Amino acid sequence: MNVSYLYDLILLFFIYSVAGWITEVTLKYFQYHRFINRGFLIGPYCPIYGTGAVIVTVLSGLLADYDASYGTSFVISFFFCGALEYLTGLLLEKRFHARWWDYSQKPMNLHGRVWIGNLILFGLGGMAVDKIFNPYLLIFLEGMHADTLRTLSLLIALIMFSDYLVSHFIIRLLKKGVESSDADDSEAIAREVRYLLENTSVLHKRILDAYPELVFRTEKVKQRLERARRERERLRAMANDSLLELSDLIEETRDNVSKNLVTTRALQRNIIDLQDDLIDLLLSDDLDDATKASLLAKLDDEKQLLDERERRRTSLIRSLRSENDRPRVDPGDINRPDNVR
Fold first, then answer.
1. Is residue 130 within 8 Å of residue 58, measured between CB atoms?
2. Sign of dihedral through CA atoms 25, 18, 49, 73?
3. What's the pTM value of the predicted model, to 2 decimals?
4. What does the CA dihedral 229, 233, 239, 240 come to, rounded to 10 degrees?
5. What distance in Å separates the CA atoms of residue 84 and residue 52, rounded to the nearest whole number?
């Protein structure tokens, strides 16, 4: 690759980046009805379009001796420009913790970074670049003086590199806003970062204007969301356990209350009735094991309740007797002398 061809590629990169920017601005104007300076960089260019055009130009030139058909240009653009968009989106997400475009709602998308509609447009656009625009642009560039070509190429490279440094600094502020946010969801983070950037310079605000659909994605936020989810599940489990314990306690209290409301005479009557039922079943040979076990369990519960009442009554009687048997002191004896002479 000679130096002149490298300069041609730099100028082609710039021309198609500007053309891509114009396309993006036009489309967003119809969508939002206002001017939006699209692109990661500040200037009027979208480097991803220029990079895709250069890839198509170089690969088509390498394959020109083998196959120079429209189908080849389409396939090259379809796959390589699609890979470029996917990798660019992935890199921006990893580097700045934000998703700059999202095709998750589109049909036949790959992780929301590319979708079939864009891939077809890339293929058609690559055909137009290789077969329609490049022949005229390359002839125009060949007619330029070598010094002019070199100066323009170096000047464009310097401007775009400086633009990248400034834009990178701005995006780092956005990333810092995302990481320092205490919010627990992307919408809340977006509001905080937008407030942060809207109160800074116009260069900071243009990032938010350039990507209205910007979605913030950060591992820090995911960790907070996961902790919040686990805490909610823990609290829900504790609440369920508490409700079960309370339900058991209420049931037990209700049983105790209902038992205590039964008079001792009625309790004795129940025991006699259960014994009579058990005897009748034994005499009639109709007593099976399940019925026997049920009657014995009820009889045992009634007897335990009766015994408990008897123990409480006995304890109360003893307490009263001990109180009555305690020696009483005559108040008049308190001030009476021990020896009266």
1. no
2. positive
3. 0.56
4. 150
5. 7
Q: What is the identity of the amino acid at 180?
A: S
Handedness of CA 5, 11, 12, 13 (dihedral sign): positive
CA–CA gap between residue 283 and residue 152 (Å, rounded): 118
- 188-223 pLDDT, tens digit per residue, is 545 555 555 555 554 555 555 555 555 555 555 556
Q: What is the pLDDT of residues 154-191, one digit of tens each?
A: 999 999 999 888 877 777 766 665 555 544 444 554 55
Check: CB of residue 158 under 8 Å from CB of residue 12.
Answer: no
Please give the Cα distance from 45 to 11 (Å, whole number): 12
User: What distance in Å separates the CA atoms of residue 206 and residue 95, rounded to the nearest whole number?
Assistant: 19
Q: Helices 146-180 and 186-198, interaxial angle, to 10°?
A: 120
CA distance 303 to 271: 7
How far is 132 from 137, CA to CA, in rounded Å? 9
